[in-house]
Amino acid sequence: MVRQWTRAGLAIVLAGCALLPASSVVRRTSPDVDAETTRQLTAAASTLLERRSQALVQQRHHDRSSPTEILGVRISPRVAHVQERAVRELETRNRAPVEGGPAYTGARTRLDGGKATRTGDRITLEAVEHTEVRYDSGKLTQLVRRRFEFRTRGEQITLIGERVLDPAARPVNDPDLPTR
Prior knowledge:
six-stranded mixed sheet; 6 strands
């Protein structure tokens, strides 16, 4: 009788062990990032693009230094350095839609439709950039798909790279420098 209970007990324990991992498995985070974090990442990326667009417009007092953090998202030193070089280049570029034409008088850039996904400690944000630059007799509007790469460490998120997804696109607010 003791052997029978021992076998039955062992069978129950083994059955319980087989079920235990299924109920106690650590749930993986969804590859999609929550809406609030996506808005935060989009705002940080958009700020950098907006600064480059503004560099096309002649201004007297322009702050060239790149922010090190935007809405809690850190900007990697490498991205900040590339951003500063880009702003300098765009400020000295011909500020007209055509060579010798009227100068740009205004610029506005925003990111729409951003979708962020997480893979391990990396977050990728893909969004459509809408840039409009105005000049005396008109305006130029561009739509460009971009990808931004972020790295996470705990709660800290850092922007580590960006690139244009459309191979033929030549965004007006991109310098002739590599931005990745």
